[in-house]
Amino acid sequence: MEYLTLAMAKGRTTESTMALLEDAGIYFTDLHEKTRKLVFYSTDERIKLIFVKAVDVPTYVEKGAADIGIVGKDNILEAQADVYEMLDLGLGRCKFVVAGKPEQLPEKNLTIASKYPAVAKKHFQKKGTAIETVKLNGSVELAPLIGLADMIVDIVETGNTINENGLTIFEELEAISTRLIVNKASFATKSDAIDLFITNLKSALE
């Protein structure tokens, strides 16, 4: 039987994503919290689940190593992958923001620290503002405080971390949530299986 390969990452939305898949009738009975396995098969052997880093999910899907992927919109935007974005699962809702010290007013020739330099660059290009980006993988809020960057582009859920570090949100950018993405070739060659997967997910979301 031909199966679909689904790429996703372990993280803060994994539990709710797996619950959604179960509501859609897709079960991975050998998947448990302490397992170190990276490949799982659904009980009906229709879905092959592979766990990869969240930042790599769009690449796996774009290159055809996975037919479908479940990943945050932030990683889709940063990867700029050529994939179909099919469904908003509504999980892990947050947003991109531009933030910095209260006295820091937006100006030209800014240095922006971010885990998402491509997103930051694209945003400021639209504004006609030249920037230099500094790629950071964590504690991005620290950058303006120690002079590493003028401002940051980051995702926030409540904004508490921004506020607690004495920063101000200057702009709110695109809303972020978990999305279903599909490889373009797979969408043509495995259309029936993908349509069924999407239909079942939609029913589970209702």
Shape: elongated
Count the E strands: 11
How many helical elements?
Answer: 8
Amount of beta strand: 25-35%
Helix content: 25-40%
Q: Regions with pLDDT < 50 over 5+ consecutive residues?
A: none
Describe the largest sheet.
Answer: 6 strands, mixed
End-to-end Cα distance, whole Å, is: 29 Å
What class would the helix/strand composition place it in? alpha/beta
Mean pLDDT: 92
Provide an overview of this structure.
This protein is of the alpha/beta class and 206 residues long. It is 31% helix and 29% strand. It has 8 helices and 11 strands. The chain has helices at 14-23, 57-62, 73-79, 117-126, 142-145, 160-164, 184-189, 191-205; strands at residues 4-8, 39-41, 47-51, 68-72, 84-88, 94-100, 110-114, 131-135, 151-156, 168-176, 178-182. The strands form 2 sheets. The protein has a 6-stranded mixed β-sheet with strand order 2-3-1-4-11-5. Strands 8-7-9-6-10 form a 5-stranded mixed β-sheet. A hairpin with a 5-residue loop joins strand 2 and strand 3 (47-51). The longest helix is centred in the last third of the chain and has 15 residues, at 191-205. It is elongated and about 60 Å long. The chain starts with a strand and ends with a helix.
